[in-house]
Amino acid sequence: MASFASPSPELRYHAPYMEWAKTRAAAEFDLAGSNILACTLDELAGARAAVDLSGANDNGYQPLVQAIAGRYGVSPDLVTTAGGTSGANFFVLAALLEPGDDVLVERPGYDPLMGAARLLGARTVRFDRRFEDGFALDPECVRRALTPRTRAIVITSPHNPSGVAVDPAALDEIGTIAARAGAHVVVDEVYKDATGDRTPPAAMRGEVFATTSSLTKSYGLASLRAGWVIASPALTYRVRRARDVVDGTGSIVAERLATLAFEQLDALTARARAILERNRTLADAFLQSRTDLEWAPSAGTIVFPRIRGVADAGPFVDRLMRERSTALGPGAYFDAPAHFRLGYGGDTEKIRAGLERVGAALDERAK
C-alpha cells in the first residue's frame, strides 16, 4: 500500500489551523467550530424543487449576484461570487498582489489569510490586536507595520478568533492610511450578519476597501460554499479575471440554492438569532462564573478566553478532548497559545453539555 508523507509545515502556503480542523478527531461535544447550526433541507423551503443542473453563471449566477447586491444595497456590477469566504479572500488577494508584495495581517488571526498571500508569492507582515486592548483594531499598529511594498491590509470584522467587532472610526482611519500607501483594505465580514449589524459593507466606505463574506457562518449554510466579493468596479474586474484561472465559475446547483436562501434570508436570520440568543446566554453565564478565565466581550458566534496565569492552553485543550470528548479551538493556531476559541453557534443542548465539561475540566485542573 502506498504511503503519503504529511504536508510540511515549511510549505509557504501551509495553514495549520485548517489542516487541524479537517483532520482532528470527532468530538461528542464540539465547541471548536464557529458556524451556526446547519440548516436542513426542510428549513430551506423549496430546496428540493430548486435543484437544477443547468443555468448560465459565467460571471456568477445573475439572480444570485442581484440578490447579494439587493441585500447589501450595492450595484450588481460590484459583486463577484466565490466558493465561500475563503474563495472570496483568495480571489481578491490574487487580484491585488504580485510576487514580492507585502500584506499586513492581524495577529491573532485566521491562518488561511496568511496562507493565501504566501501562495501568491507575497510576504505577510503582522500587526497586533492585543488582548489588553480588548482585541480592538488600532490604526497606529497598522501604520507602524506598513512597508514600501504593502499592497493589502487584511482585517476580519468581527475578528476571528475573538469575535470582537471593529470600531468604524478605526476602519476609516485605516482606509486613509491604505490610500496614502497605495494599498487596499480587505475586510472579511463573514461573521457580521450573525451580530445583527446591518450597516453597509466596508466596501461602501470607499474604493480602497473590499468586502468578503458568505452564507457560511451566519446562516447555517456552510455546505453551499456561497461567498462573494464586493469591491470597486476596477477591482471587481480584476477579481473576476482572477477567478477565470482558478475555477472559472461556481456550481450552478449551489448558486441556485444560494439564491433561494437569499429569498428567505429574513427567516434564516431569525433562526440564527434565536439559536445565538439561547447559546450566548449559556456562554456568557459560563464565562462570568469562571474566575479562572478572562476574555474580551465578543459578537457573532465565537469568543476567545484564556486561563489566568497559563501561557499555553494547548495541554488543557488536548486533555479536554482526550478525557471528555469535548473540542475547543487551540489558540496556538491563531498565534495566541494562551487562549482557546470557543464556538457557541451549534446545537443548544450540545453547547450546554460541552460547557459543563469545560467547567469540570477547569475545576479538576485547579485541584
Strand and helix layout:
Layout lengths: L15 H8 L5 E2 L16 H4 L11 H11 L6 E5 H13 L5 E6 L3 H9 L3 E6 L10 H7 L4 E7 L11 H14 L2 E5 L20 E6 L1 H4 L6 E5 L2 H12 L7 H12 L1 H25 L3 E2 L7 E2 L2 E2 L6 H11 L1 E2 L1 E2 L9 E4 L4 H19 L1
Helix pairs in contact: 3-10, 4-5, 4-9, 11-13, 12-13
Q: Which runs of at least 5 residues are low in confidence (pLDDT < 50)?
A: 1-7
Strand content: 15-25%
**Can you tell me the number of structural domains?**
2
Question: Which outline best applies?
Answer: globular
Q: Let me know the largest β-sheet.
A: 7 strands, mixed
CATH superfamily of the largest domain: Type I PLP-dependent aspartate aminotransferase-like (Major domain)
* Overall pLDDT score: 93
The fold-level CATH name of the largest domain is: Aspartate Aminotransferase, domain 2
Q: Care to describe what's here?
A:
The structure is a single chain. This protein has 367 residues and is of the alpha/beta class. The protein has two domains: 124 residues, Aspartate Aminotransferase, domain 1; 216 residues, Aspartate Aminotransferase, domain 2. The protein has 13 helices and 14 strands. The strands form four sheets. The protein has a seven-stranded mixed sheet with strand order 2-8-7-6-5-3-4, with helices on both faces. Helix 11 packs parallel to helix 13. It is globular and about 60 Å long. The termini are far apart.
